[in-house]
C-alpha cells in the first residue's frame, strides 16, 4: 500500500492546480502527474499571451514545449530520478494540426539519447490556458 512518503513534490516545478502531488513512487516506478509549461510561483505561462478574461490571444508552442520538458526534468531530479530514466510519455496537445510538427522536432532534440514509449493525443482543452501537457512514467532506484 502506498503512503504519503511515496508522494513527491518538486521545489522548482510549478505548483499543482489541484490536490495531487507532482509524482508518486510505486516500487521502482515514478508516476508523474500531468505537467504543463507554467512557471513556479506565478500564473505566467511561457509563450502565452492572454487577454484580461484569461483567453488565449496567441501562443508559441516551441516555448511551451521547452518549458514543459524543463518542468518534467525538475520533477524527475527532485524525486531522485532523471531524464534518462523516462520509460513512457503521454503528450496532450490542444492543436495537433498546427503544433505537432514543431513539438515533434523539439521532442527529438530532448529524447535523442533516451527514447521512451510515446503516445500523443489531441484534447479539446487543458485545465489552464496551455497548449501542451505531459504525463510521464520513469524508473527510480
TrEMBL record:
Give TM regions: none
Name a GO molecular-function annotation: deaminase activity
Q: Which domain of life is it from?
A: Bacteria
- The coiled-coil regions, if any, are none
Task: Name the GO cellular-component terms.
Answer: cytosol
> One Pfam family name from the record?
Ribonuc_L-PSP
InterPro entries linked to this entry: RutC-like_sf, YjgF/YER057c/UK114
Q: Which CDD domains match?
A: YjgF_YER057c_UK114_family
Q: Which family does it belong to?
A: Belongs to the RutC family.
Alphabetical list of PANTHER family matching this protein = 2-AMINOMUCONATE DEAMINASE, 2-IMINOBUTANOATE/2-IMINOPROPANOATE DEAMINASE RIDA
What is this protein's name?
A: 2-aminomuconate deaminase
What organism is the protein native to? Pontibacter mucosus
